[in-house]
Amino acid sequence: MSGDSLERIRKDIVVCRLCPRLVEWREQVAREKVARFADQDYWGRPVPGWGDPDATVLILGLAPAAHGGNRTGRIFTGDRSGDFLFASLHRTGFANQSPSVSVDDGLSLHGAYVAAVNRCAPPSNKPTPEERDRCLPYLEREIRALTRLDVVVALGAFAWDGALRALSGIGHAVKPRPRFGHLAEVRIGPFVLLGCFHPSQQNTFTGKLTPGMLDGVFERARVLVDR
């Protein structure tokens, strides 16, 4: 899109109402809340990507958490997955601090940009294929707007699939279709797609994804950028 920018993409994302089921769910969650956040005003809208506009690494998740990004207005902010993720980004030099609790908490990213395949919190964390496809153009636009981008880190199989679809949508298809795995790595046009288990509580509490494993992904991303 000629003349596109991250700010223009952000403005388009936050007013999007293309998926009726997701609109209904995100707004219901924002109204009904949960007891521990009953005194807070929820964002309750699509959540845009954020980070360093000169990022060389794009970190891609599935969708905002109902009481995380859907509450705070920033992806991976205010939930356990974000706590785990940003602690690693801080240890590996991509973030200035570990805490990610609100949009005004002072967190900033250096060389990294964080986004999701779907921008609205979906029921049971499961967007439909149609909802995924309606959202993918935003990701395609972000990839184009991140002019220094080298590496896409896909957090989980859904993000891996979304990244492949978005890259294909901007003219960088790869065959045969590469399979997701932790530290799976494939070059697609000018980019490297790097797989990582999602930092969900299911993965981090069971040890499927440890802090050292996550650090290893971002350390590998930095090596790829520096080549």
Describe the structure.
There is one protein chain. The chain is an alpha/beta fold and 227 residues long. 40% of the residues lie in helices and 12% in strands. The protein has a six-stranded mixed beta sheet with strand order 1-3-2-4-6-5, sandwiched between helices. Helix 4 crosses helix 8 and helix 5 crosses helix 6. It is globular and about 50 Å long.
Summary of the model, kept short:
This protein is α/β, with parallel strands linked by helices. Helix content is about 40%, strand content about 10%.
Supply the key terms.
single chain, 227 residues, alpha/beta, Uracil-DNA Glycosylase, subunit E, six-stranded mixed sheet, 8 helices
In the CATH hierarchy, the third-tier topology is known as: Uracil-DNA Glycosylase, subunit E
Q: What CATH architecture do you see?
A: 3-Layer(aba) Sandwich
**CATH classification, class level:** Alpha Beta
- Full CATH superfamily name: Uracil-DNA glycosylase-like domain
Compressed to H and E, one letter per element, the order equals HHEEHHEHEHEEHH
How large is the share of residues in beta strands? 5-15%
Number of helices: 8
Largest sheet: 6 strands, mixed
Task: Report mean pLDDT, rounded to a whole number.
Answer: 97
Flag low-confidence runs.
Answer: none
Q: What is the overall shape?
A: globular
| N-end to C-end Cα span | 29 Å
Give the fraction of residues assigned to helices.
25-40%
- Kindly state the number of beta strands: 6
